[in-house]
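User: For a teaching handout, I'd like to show students what a predicted protein-ligand complex looks like in token form. I'll give you the sequence and the SMILES for zinc ion. Please answer with just the structure.
Assistant: Understood, here is the input followed by the structure.
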Amino acid sequence: MTKARNVIGLECSACDKKYDPAVEQHLCTCGRPLLARYNLRQAAATLNLAALQSRPRTLWRYAEVLPDDPPVSLGEGMTPLLHSVRLGAAIGLERLYVKDEGLNPTGSFKARGMTTAVTRAKRLDAKALAAPTAGNAGGALAAYAAAAGIPAVIVMPADTPSANVMECQAFGAQVVKLNGLISDCGKYVAERKDREGWYDVSTLKEPYRVEGKKTMGYELWEQFGGKLPDVIFYPTGGGVGLIGMCKAFDEMQEMGWIGSERPRMVAVQAEGCAPIVRAWETNQNTARFFQNAATIASGLRVPGPLGDLLILSMLRRTKGTAVAVTDDEMLHAGRELASLEGVFAAPEGAATVTAARKLAASGWIRPHETVVLFNTGTGYKYSEAWQRALQLVPAGVAT
Ligand SMILES: Cc1ncc(COP(=O)(O)O)c(C=O)c1O
Ligand SMILES: [Zn+2]
């Protein structure tokens, strides 16, 4: 057991109870996720825009605010931030950017969370890693586990996109397919982990995936030259991307980089699985389990997110909102993003285009505001969804 020296403590996100980061930790006794805390005054002494210029082009460049273990890295992070002029003109936004997370190892932002989680698990001497997945997280975990030399067990719904199944098998993971949703896969892992000696890497059930994902917030700040955008659209399933970025913004404020202002966070979900949107619209602090969840955006098929409390409080704190998009809207939007900008997106990423159009049309976003859409994954892993998209939309017609 080795202490990650940068991390001075783990703290419950709900009741503030403290935990020792030198040993394996999962949820708080109250059932809510733990978050890593740093000595940010010390971090701010060496972490700044000038220092970053000469650092490696991976997310490990933000070393002061990450666990300082030897990284299990495949070159993740520092994805392009594209000024999407043609799409912006179509939507009515002058400063529209797409952050293309599809360029990460294994083709999604899930690589960010897994590089930090597997790095820490390796240091804590984990014997086998296990996680339920909607698809992309499993592929990323399998890849980083392979690179770390640790066996992995990936549990996924039987109808997960075929590319996700194949990549996990190729990386040498044990793949379990269940007739059910990610919530059923989560139960499968929870029931067996103690008996099997698995280290549970489920969303928010260990503290370090959030740490990798928060680097999306640091990168935006760096890529905008030490500034943050006005609005961020994020496709939200388990919510780790959104929670991670908001955590990054809080850390930046503590380091004196920004004030109390925040980008307005927009959680984008699928109409067929929108627990956060429903809770937001009915002004609840927590989300109800979404029955009969179904959407082509497999990463958004998370009917009961464990981070609901955090996600909803972050939407409120940042004066953000939550928007649901139909599958057909996502598929049309994917065509539009591809044909106008050359970005071949996952349906989850495409959903943000529709959401931005709706909020620009309603006046919630003003035309000159700086807006970032997160394309969280590559379209190349979604051949089933893209086949449907190409049938739906006549070739050459952008909506
Ligand atoms: C492409 C893609 N986008 C978004 C998400 C949702 O991610 P989060 O759990 O951070 O909300 C997923 C999760 O599987 C995904 O694969
Ligand atoms: Zn607690």
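For the handout, you might add this sentence: The chain has 15 helices and 13 strands.
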